[in-house]
Amino acid sequence: MTSTDGxxxxxxxxxxxxxxxxxxxxAGALDLDGAQRLADRLVxxxxxxxxxxxxxxxxxxxxxxxxxxxxRAVRETVGDRASLVTGVxxxxxxxxxxxxxxAERAGADGVLVVTPYYSRPPQDALEVHFREVADxxxxxxxLYDIPARTxxxxxxxxxxxxxxxxxxxxxxxxxxxxLGTQKVLSRTDLAYYAGCDxxxxxxxxxxxxxxxxxxxxxxxxxxxxxxxxFDAGDTAGAARRQQQAVPLVExxxxxGLPGTxxxxxxxxxxxxxxxxxxxxxxxxxxEARDGLMRAYEELAAYExxxx
Length: 307
Fold this sequence. Notes:
Blueprint: E1 16-19, H1 32-44, E2 49-52, H2 64-78, E3 83-87, H3 93-106, E4 110-114, H4 123-135, E5 141-145, H5 147-150, H6 156-162, E6 168-173, H7 178-187, E7 191-194, H8 200-205, E8 210-213, H9 220-231, H10 235-253, H11 259-269, H12 286-306
Parallel strand pairs: 1-2, 1-8, 2-3, 3-4, 4-5, 5-6, 6-7, 7-8
Helix pairs in contact: 1-2, 2-3, 3-4, 4-6, 6-7, 9-10, 10-12, 11-12
């Protein structure tokens, strides 16, 4: 990312971040041992940051205590090998502040703050919400712009104003507004992270800091290699890797099932920590699982050829 003074600051949380699932036991309890094993695998295969307790981490159905326990357990495992960002966003400013302070005590490096959902606050109220959260702790904020889920966009002009706050440092971008994203990139020092796996290379090419990837739960090396290729000047190689991932991205993210469900289906088939999803989510059916594994195995064959 190029800043307004022409320098290129290091990404605040790394480049290849995984939106990690939250493993559960077969009985539906939090599986901290599984979370530690999965986190270690992701970091050892190229993820230099993990996002815990986000959408993919089933944050709507985990308790505050479970969220803190997950951060502590993963921090114990990864140490300083990776940045930890944890989701704290709710539709209640007071609750979001409580979770932010809890995250700081648990050892997070930053917090992911989604736009308050359902109440759909106007932009001035939204700006105050984010500022109050930023003022509540010493942790840097990643603003999560995903209007398809929340019902409210963080408008580019709002982001530009918020960028002046010293602890508002990054954006997880699921806005599907490529022009608006470039506008903010050109006028601020905000570190942008592609939150949609089909946009990883496109956003990186125009100055993003990296990605927060759901498919990285199952192909962490591939996502890291894509970014590494681009950084090394091999833009054709990076484009090839993005294209190779398209069938899996489509199967996991665009086939009608939430990414949490599809990621856990693939991880389970690979005998990796996952467990069930919590209601109201339901596990992937047989046909969906078969399609997911076909897409995964096709990409794995590419990986074997390029190893």
